[in-house]
Amino acid sequence: MQDFWTFVTDFGDSAVTLPLGVLTLIFLLASGWRRAAFAFLLAIGCAGVGIGLLKLLLVSCGKPLVGAALTDPSGHVAMSASTYGSLALAVGRSLPVRLRPWLGAGAALLVAGIALSRVLLHAHSPAEVVAGLVVGLLSILLFRAALGPGEAPPLRLAWFALGAIAIAAAMHGTRWPIEQWIKSVAHFIRGRWPGCG
């Protein structure tokens, strides 16, 4: 079962979510849907900055600030929720109303699988997964608010789907060291910040 959960968790790695986010941004701009492109960039940017700052805050002094179970919020979960959730909302606007719940359920199932995988693989505690999920859900709400009402312009979803499949095939299983970069910054801060020692 560990191989299965590793397979699932890799869909949440920044090696997949960041290229998919760039593809989504290009796709929305090429479709002439600038408002959605801005909303997507805002949501993803806020999720990334938010989870990064939360990680730095909770580990920079080398001791838990709110308890041992919450020292490293899940970036996999935050970025997965933000990327897949915002993408589902955007693409859903171009689908018939009857299909939108299915797309939303698929995105939610993927994010839930990634969240569960982080706990089962002992990468994060349940509290850290919940913290990442909260950041991701807040970014989805931000995306929805920035997107506003209205339907999507005509979207060439077949081309986007081919690009997304190509990214997943090429990048799935690759792991980018963003977590290690954040930890390096935290170690740099530790001992240099008043009160940390």
Short description:
By secondary structure, this protein is mostly helical. The protein has helices spanning 2-9, 14-30, 34-59, 75-92, 100-120, 126-147, 157-171, 178-189. The N and C termini lie far apart (41 Å).
Characterise this structure.
This protein has 197 residues and is an all-alpha fold. It has helices at residues 2-9, 14-30, 34-59, 75-92, 100-120, 126-147, 157-171, 178-189. The N and C termini lie far apart (41 Å).
Helix content: over 70%
Tally of extended strands?
0
- Counting helices, strands and paired strands, the structural category is mainly alpha
Task: Give the CA-CA distance, first to last residue.
Answer: 41 Å
Quaternary form: single chain
**C-alpha geometry:** globular
Could you give a short account of the major beta sheet? none
Q: Which strand-content bin applies to the residues?
A: under 5%
Radius of gyration: 17 Å
Low-confidence stretches: none
Q: Give the overall average pLDDT.
A: 89
Q: How many DSSP helices?
A: 8
- SSE pattern, N- to C-terminal: HHHHHHHH
Q: Any key phrases for this structure?
A:
8 helices, mainly alpha, globular, about 200 residues
Which helices and strands, and how do they pair?
Blueprint: H1 2-9, H2 14-30, H3 34-59, H4 75-92, H5 100-120, H6 126-147, H7 157-171, H8 178-189
Helix pairs in contact: 1-5, 2-3, 2-4, 2-7, 3-4, 3-6, 3-8, 4-5, 4-6, 5-6
